Amino acid sequence: MKRTRYTITDKIITRITGCIAGITLLVLAVWGARTCYILHRFEQTNDAQVQEYINPVISRAGGFIAAVRFEENQDVKKGDTLLLIDNREYNMQEEQTKASIEKATAQLQVLESNMHTLQKTAEASASQAEAIKAKVWKQQLDYDRYEKLYKAESATAQQLEDKKAALEVNQSDYKAAQDNYAASQSRIEDAAQEKGVIRAEITRLKALLSRHRLDVTYTVITAPYNGRMGRRTIEQGQMINAGEVLAYIVNNETDKWVVANYKETQVAHMRIGDTVNIEADAYPERTFRGTIISLSPATGSSFSLLPPDNATGNYVKIVQRIPVRIKVAGNRQELDLLKAGMNVNVSAVKKNNL
């Protein structure tokens, strides 16, 4: 009886073992068939990462940070204030430039008043010259008459000499009046040139004032678009310089994409516009869709700092990879699940047509 019981138990164990082996073989067969189908149907790579625009927040003005109004990983809207820089020095520069403009404007007004006075002086010199000119004309006529009378012995030499002296004095006065008029005109021209210089200085100061006002606006650093802030490394009271990177912001207004580095033997049948499946390591139960938007014009190593030169040293053939850019489809809620730098697996359908 004991021998029979052991025999039945052995049969049961054998059957169970056979069933398990059969199920295992079936599972392996299904898995193998599925793997072969996937390998035959899709081009896959796990050398792929999520990318999106991550831009630096750069200061365009230097100074002490008066306030920091963002935290790490905070969502911000376009125009939100991120940082405030102490703007007192920039305000003082603006006020100094305003005062310089007011001073130059006052100088221009004084110069215009002087030009008016010079114009009146020139007109008076011109009138005086005309009056003396009339006297010269009258003296010339008198001299000519006395010269004729002297020749006719009807006038004395002294009378002729008196007329000649008076004529020469009036001619000298006329020349002096003309010189005074020319000098007045010259002073007017000088004043006009000086007005041009002051006007040019006012134009320069206005441009400088605009720059100072622009510098004041630079002391308020705002978000350039809707996005999420990165790591915060600055604090209130810290000294910064113009052009310094203060933080990083991830742009929420642009699409996300995946850069999949396919082997050169895998891209023969890939075309722009092909649909691909994307599986993120962080969400293995979800499948994202994407569209190929471009293929790199060269291998990744060709864009490296020191591209390999196969003409030197011992040559070892290494399969190169071609970066393929894939736009991720989906709504904003789905796209927010994918973060820049995440590793993903990409599957592209093979196509037989070239």
From TrEMBL:
Main location: membrane
Subcellular location: Membrane
Native source organism of the sequence: Deminuibacter soli
Chain coiled-coil ranges: 87-194
SUPFAM superfamilies tied to this protein: HlyD-like secretion proteins
Domain Multidrug resistance protein MdtA-like barrel-sandwich hybrid positions: 57-250
Any GO BP: transmembrane transport
Transmembrane domains' residue ranges: 12-33
Keywords on record: Coiled coil, Membrane, Transmembrane, Transmembrane helix
Topology in membrane: Single-pass membrane protein
Name of this chain's protein: HlyD family secretion protein
GO-annotated cellular components: membrane
Residue ranges occupied by any CusB-like beta-barrel domain in the UniProt entry: 257-298
InterPro entries, per the entry: Beta-barrel_RND_2 (IPR058792), MdtA-like_BSH (IPR058625), MFP (IPR050739)
Gene3D superfamilies (UniProt xref): 2.40.30.170, 2.40.50.100, Helix hairpin bin
